[in-house]
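Task: encode each sequence below as structure tokens.

Item 1
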Amino acid sequence: MLHEVVKKSSPLPSNSKILIFGGGFSGQHIANVARKLGAEVLCSRRDNTKKGADFAFDSTVNKLISEKIFHGVTHIISCIPPAKNGEDPVLKHYGQIIQKIPIKWAGYLSTTGVYGDYQGNWVTEQSDVHPRQQRSIRRLACEKEWESLGIPLQILRLPGIYGPGRSALESISAQKNSMVYKPGQVFSRIHIDDIAGSIIHLINLFEDKICPKVINIADNLPATNIEVLSFAANLLDKPLPPIESFEDASKKMSPMALSFWQENRKVSNKQLCNKLGYKLIHTDYKDGLKDCLKCNL
């Protein structure tokens, strides 16, 4: 919940002005938390009539913004994925401007998909990156493009994102999903509260010159699809979906869904939580789904 993130976060540096590119599920939550902590926030959406849109930016239709919007900006967060051609939409149009303004911190939201398949083993920030999916290959290229700017930057690698209105609870309620069984297959996750909370934590640490380049943001408990859906069904007091083998389920999956099942890794958060001192608001999917249920009531 928003108030839990705010309660557990330190105030942002004075006179902070945060520019967020990509006001979707995560971007809006980050923006709302930052505003509650005293920052001025400008958040983009593709359509400026949508909720939470402070300005419109959509490179696919050449809907661009004035350079004036960068005036006084101290922090930049990019949640926008690469274009299909691999280019970063933000840097394509504003990279040179971002290089010139005196920002204190920039965060690029990437994916743990850049690690590729580790056959169920743990990955840390020191693990080799060998992405196999095209979207992850594009993400890694954009990470390098952001790094090349030479600005105060941290790359935040995220696994599966969930939160109120977008979780296993909705899957169970819709009764559309089966529980897919694939031996040894686990997924890492992160609640949007902890995306926002960790970003605030990292911004404040950066002020104190504590600034590792890459940070994994994940909860403590990678888990199977069956474990998560079973817990959600129990919370809702609804029947469990049928269990289906991966071999059978894969025949009906979209290429995108299938790609997630073709890689298997556990994402370590030890740097974020042990070394950098961030305390998770939702330590695992059980606590996170309970929060989602409260928000949905």
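Item 2
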Amino acid sequence: MAVTQPTALQRAEELAATMPTLLVAAERVASTVAQGVHGRRRIGQGDTFWQFRQYQPGDTTQRIDWRQSAKSQRVFIREHEWEAAQSIWLWRDASASMHYASDRNLPEKGDRAELLLLALASLLIRSGEHVAFMGEGYPPSNGRAVLNRMAASLLHGGTATANAPPPEPLPRDAQIVLFSDFLGPSEEIETSVKGYAARGVAGHLLQILDPAEEAFPFSGRIRFEGLEEEGDALINRTERVRDQYRHRLAGLRANLTALARRHDWTFSVHHTDRPASSALLALYGALARVAV
């Protein structure tokens, strides 16, 4: 019997129905954290011009530069240095390894990463910060429209599925938050961190793992399937390699911790069986400490 493929309209309707769910969940997590934190300390607005950028929905009309806008058919916003310094860029790993959950009652790592990214964006926007989704092509901005656009981008697949963020000319003193399992090639993330740190960008690494990836509770004969073309591995007595696996994971984490420390970044770990709000609160606190 032939299987009828969904039309483009049906796929679009399914996507539209999913977006409010993600937004509601993210806003709920952000609201939980917002009740227990104070606003971020902010530097003054200053008068030094930084750049013009095109007006976006959600921007106030008071920030429009009418003289610059009169030179073309587009409307421009005038931004000052403090807005560049307070910009916060968000990226999540969308590689195949993030599509893993050891239990049907647990979210996939990628789903948790997207929830945390959107919740952090919501929390920062409430504080008046300017945020951007790396690779999306839009400058940092503020307002509900930014959150809606980021959610839509995530649900459409977001940016490229690399193990590390793309190189972008972020302004000095910006901040960047990376959500990943960091199980890909270590040299890729190391190169990325070094590059951004050299530009004066402060960063925060959040490693998201399934609890089974931490504990390795498997036993007996199991075939493990590689999610990123590593091939399969058949292990007859998985309990015999448990200590070796944990040792390698501890080594990876120690390297990530050292990498972050060398560049004055922060590193933390979140497991998908833990509340998302706990990870969000820690990230928000790390961002605030850098901004002070």
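Check on item 2: Residues 8-34 form the longest helix (27 residues). The chain has a mean pLDDT of 79.
End of task.
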